[in-house]
Amino acid sequence: MDSPTPVLEPTHDDLLAEIQSFDGERREILDPATGEVIGHAPVHSVDDLEAAVSRAKAAQPAWAALGHERRSELLMQAADAIDAEGEALARILSREQGKPLNGPNARFEVGGASGWLRAAAATRLETEVVFDDGQVHAEMTYRPIGVVGAIGPWNWPQMITVWQVGPALRMGNTVVVKPSEYTPLSVLALVAVINRVLPEGVVEIVSGGREIGAALSSHPAVGKVMFTGSTATGKAIIRSSADTVKRLTLELGGNDAGIVLPDVDPKAIAEGLFWGAFINTGQTCAALKRLYVHDSVYDAVCEALVDVAAAMPMGVGLDEGNVLGPLQNRQQFDIVDRLVESAKASGARVLLGGEPDREQPGHFYPTTLVADIDDANPLVQEEQFGPALPIVRYHDVDEAIALANDVEVGLGASVWGADRDEARRVAARIEAGTVWINSHGTIHPMVPFGGAKQSGYGLEFGVEGLKALGLPQVING
Q: 204, 251, 383, 460: which one is catalytic?
């Protein structure tokens, strides 16, 4: 008796083929680990954007009319679709962005995308009675904005897209997505999977360069723009959105400080410090980017960090053994390289790394720890966005807090200490949107997240995140 023909599961090659079946101009997308061509992305025009916005605008009234319950059901089904294609999505992401499959990387990101979509679908936003004295009764509800523009980054392209799209859809808006030109395939694949469930026109995607982002952020039919990326680009979006008075949520650059208090156990905190700084090979807006350590534990913390960092394998993302990958693009490699070289030239002490192979095809920069560095050094003052951590010695806590606050950005920060009450007192004096105690960068879909100073404005996640994707309306009577 013949054996039955096996049913083969779809692969990431199938999903890649699906998103590359288009006519028109296209460009090559290279693997940042090997330099190999992994696929082609469409190069859409401003006319293509106009058509996408028109489709989203036409689809929005019917989508809003479905009501919260039905929209939430469809978003849950879209999350199921992401899970069903999870491995394919993770492999596309690993090959395009560079992050390994394992560790807090590609598979983790895809799981975060479906998890955050479920959270947006499940979160309730009740009508709020804001005043009632027996004579005046006022209630506040939230109406859909209309069309939302979602402009995403290249470091966590799939998960951050869901952070933008999920709550927007939940609140009855439609969305036009513009992915980073560095990682379009990851987001095209994600949107293709989501759109297997959602009605036509509810999520549109336009792939292209900066001119597409500029046109989206100034488009009169777009009522809100959500953007995650650099402070410089965020400022440009603010300017281009002004004429139409768009609502904005901006999660911009950070240069997060960590303060290690003198009562810590260096070995106990070393792995937390490492992942706070080096998650996604340091390419995270709210990563730990400058570390202030009290003189009494400075050498021990440095030694413990070296032990942890030296054991973390870096390499091609599809190799199951790696947990660190390349920098996503050569421009970012050059920034990290320049900043580390400036630290070395100043006499700072390199504890680990600092000597990249600049001739290799991939954008690998070795895990680098730099000690005995002056706070004024560019590696401390500029956001490196890569695998190089400066470690600054301090002598009293007031000094460390002043140094932590002496920058123009304030996305996140952390305080590390055995006495949690003291750590909280220090945390309350730091100028940042989020301050973690004995961890760095951990996020939860129900905990609001946003920046201070030039790290942007607006909140994401949870109830506050839903409110940010609606128009408040007060009804008196």
A: 251
Question: Which H or E run includes 249?
Answer: strand 247-251
CATH number, domain containing residue 305: 3.40.309.10
Report the pLDDT averaged over residues 460-476. 97
pLDDT for 10: 54
Are both 58 and 201 inside the same structural domain? Answer: yes
The candidate with the shortest Cα–Cα distance to 390, out of 413, 407, 378, 373, is 373
pLDDT tens digit string along 276-296? 999 999 999 999 999 999 999
Tell me, yes or no, if 382 is annotated catalytic: no
C-alpha 416/C-alpha 309 separation (Å) is 18
Q: Which residues are paired to 474 by β-bridges?
A: 140
125 and 177 in one domain?
Answer: yes
Paired tokens of 215: 């046109």
Contact predicate 382/255, CB 8 Å? yes
Q: If you ran DSSP here, which 8-state letter would residue 282 be given?
A: G
Q: List the one residue out of 250, 257, 247 whose CA is nearest residue 286.
A: 257
Q: Residue 1: exposed, middle, or buried by beta-carbon count in 10 A (0-12, 13-18, 19+)?
A: exposed
Torsion of CA 271, 344, 292, 289, to 10 degrees: -60
What is the token pair recorded at 476? 């008196």
- Helices marked H in 428-467 — which ranges? 462-467
How many domains is the chain built from? 2
Q: Is residue 2 part of a domain?
A: no
Task: Give the C-alpha separation, 109 to 115, whole Å.
Answer: 10
Max distance between CA atoms of the chain, in angstroms, equals: 83
Task: Determine contact, residues 405/250, Cβ cutoff 8 Å.
Answer: no
pTM: 0.95
What percent of the chain stands above pLDDT 70? 98
